[in-house]
TrEMBL record:
Coiled coil: none annotated. It comes from Thalassobacillus hwangdonensis. This is Phosphonate ABC transporter ATP-binding protein. Pfam families: ABC_tran (PF00005). GO terms for molecular function: ATP binding. CDD domains: ABC_PhnC_transporter. Keywords: ATP-binding, Cell membrane, Membrane, Nucleotide-binding, Phosphonate transport, Translocase, Transport.
Length: 237
């Protein structure tokens, strides 16, 4: 369970990124955050793995206030809370397999990857993850040889290989065409349901949010202005 309690974030330049957020997200929920550019969606999501640091309030994950975490606890948090970005953040010249296995703890170090010193268990986990997003045939391809949609599927496989409790996706389909966007959203939703991984996604488009979300959180100027099931959105807007 992720609990925002009077959570606020003021950036060093004085911009209020989040203001008095009170939201509880339950295990296994598929939540979509919507709002205009600058509404605070990205700041909301990045607070949950502490890529940004809220300045006031509490952010509890399973009862632990992550604002109090030390660097070691933060490293652990980031293995449990996986992240997918708009620009997939893959190592372009590296193979798909190398990118995905980097999702495993400790393989960000170049030494092991240079010599392909991966435990069999991790390799099979990575391969299984790639198969789940239907891209198992590309293990040896270089990341930059794939299309945008394929790269985003690889980043889903990478996050899956991390075996996270929570997946955060910051505008994961913003640079993809509509059919590819739907494909990526379908995989995210499928994984959420099959593995019961709490999933929080930022989207620009309300129609796509309504199609996939269990619950929609609407943001404006750093505040939550709507929070409810997708079916209630049209009534209130
Ligand atoms: P969204 O994801 O909805 O576009 P953001 O969370 O990125 O919104 O931004 C919320 C507000 O915080 C905006 O006014 C934005 O300009 C500001 N902001 C975001 N990141 C920073 C930063 N690193 N420093 C200062 N202001 C920031
Ligand atoms: P996003 O679409 O994820 O919100 P942006 O394009 O708004 O990203 O911002 C890109 C980067 O610039 C982010 O790291 C964000 O934190 C930072 N940023 C955004 N707005 C500001 C701002 N007003 N001042 C300083 N940094 C900002």
């Amino acid at each position: 369970m992720i609990e925002f309690k009077d959570l606020s974030l003021v950036y060093p330049n004085g911009t209020q990124g989040l203001k008095d957020i009170n939201v509880t997200i339950n295990e296994g929920e598929f939540v979509v955050i919507v709002g205009l550019s600058g509404a605070g969606k990205s700041t909301f999501i990045r607070s949950i793995n502490r890529l940004v640091s809220p300045t006031d309030g509490e952010l509890n994950i399973d009862g632990d206030n992550i604002l109090k975490y030390n660097p070691k606890q933060l490293r652990k948090l980031r293995t449990e809370v996986g992240m997918i970005f708009q620009q997939h953040n893959l190592v372009k010249r590296s193979t798909v397999m190398k990118n995905v296995i980097a999702g495993r703890l400790g393989y960000t170090s170049t030494f092991k990857s240079m010599f392909n010193l991966y435990p069999k268990k991790d390799l099979s986990l990575a391969y299984e993850s790639l198969k789940r997003v239907n891209i198992g045939d590309k293990v040896h391809a270089r990341a930059d040889q794939l299309s945008g949609g394929q790269q985003q599927r690889v980043s889903i496989a990478r996050v899956l290989t991390q075996q996270p409790k929570v997946i955060l996706a910051d505008e994961p389909v913003a640079s993809l065409d509509p059919p590819t966007s739907h494909q990526v959203m379908t995989y995210l939703k499928q994984i959420n349901k099959e593995d019961n991984i709490t999933t929080i996604v930022n989207l620009h488009f309300i129609d796509m949010a309504m199609e996939y979300a269990d619950r929609i959180i609407g943001m404006r100027e750093g505040q939550v202005v709507f929070d409810g099931p997708a079916s209630q959105v049209s009534e209130s807007t």
